[in-house]
Amino acid sequence: MACLGGWGDLPPDLLDVVADALPLEDYTRVRAVCTAWRAALPPTLPSLLVRRLDGGCHRLSPWCLSAATAVLQCPPTMLSPTRRCVGSGSGPGWIAVCGPEVVGLVNPLTGEEIPFRSFPQRGLVVSKIVFAPNPTARDFTAVVISDHACFTGRGRIAYTTRGNGGWAHVEVPGLPRRDGIADVVYHDKGGGKKVAYCLTGSGDVHVLHLPAGRHGQRRRRPLPPSFQRLFDKASMVFYPTVAFAPPYDDATRRTENAKNLVLCHDGHFYQIWRNKCNDEMLVLRYYPRRRPCWVAAKDLGGFSVFIGQNNAVALRVDGSGGAATPGLRRNCVYWIDGSRNEAKVFDMETGKSSPCFPNGDEAHAAICWCYMGTGVAKSPHHVHVQKRARRV
Fold first, then answer.
1. Strands of 384-385's sheet, edge to edge?
2. What is the mean pLDDT of residues 12-29?
3. Domains, the chain, ranges and CATH?
4. Counts for the chain of helices (H) and strands (E), in that order
5. What's the confidence (pLDDT) of residue 143?
6. pLDDT, tens digit, for every residue of 258-278?
């Protein structure tokens, strides 16, 4: 089969035809054959990880919003009533799970598991895990929103840059008493620089500069991290009236909303606030030289974003998509309604959310968005989506 590595030399139009004819499970397996095939076929886009309700098994449905979707069967032990999904990375296919006996990473494509062996699980509440692409059992970088059960809401972060070689637990400095970490985004800046952006419930953003890994060296403690605020780096005090214009400067009201942070590959930050009562969303864009610096946005600059338990993914979309092409729509927020376990899309032009599968399979519960790419790029924010949608 390796002789077909010449696919990389096919004309782009013909290669598109071949790729479009492959179901998701075949597409993923073909890309795994060799380096030449991975280079010839572009990475797939975020998929929806769901739990089947009619048989207890799990599947990955493709990113395109069509009822007639190919599925990839996952090991039935991947998730269970005692093992919940608490995150997904930027590829390929890894998700983070947490249960009474294990906290770690699982690959539904291969069944491989990477437990966090030195992670002190007892007494900790894990709400989200983000991690670097292509983790291995001995070498991975991960950041965890965690806290002791009796101190939930204090804003604690656990991280490792040396895999199972050691974990560090730190508290985000300067948080108000009732504030906590609402979301975290991992980003590889290149040149060995790794950061985690921590969004608080009050809308502040703290930047955790992760120390360089020391894999292979015997060190009992990781190097100390470096914290700074995205806004007003020299200060650890957050002033909502300076960061946000009225009526968004009410810190008490802001903590009642579900919040996510998104970093696009053009360098722009967005905060997405969702009203838990009516699913209304507010999108704020960060302007470092403005006061206030977080300003309500009318669009996402042509991007569409996938938020939830996953490391946030931002994709630039050329074209408007629409009903005729069941693909990605620009300036939309794809999210998961946890109360209904349903995948939804919020259109910034209409200001409304609608189900991603209005006429689709009712026998599943949405869990998170799972990125199926190779992880070769520095982060999933570098993916560029063409107007044509993949046919599955």
1. 352-355, 342-347, 332-337, 303-306, 313-317, 384-385
2. 60
3. 1-42 (no CATH), 43-385 (2.120.10)
4. 5, 26
5. 94
6. 999 999 988 899 999 998 888
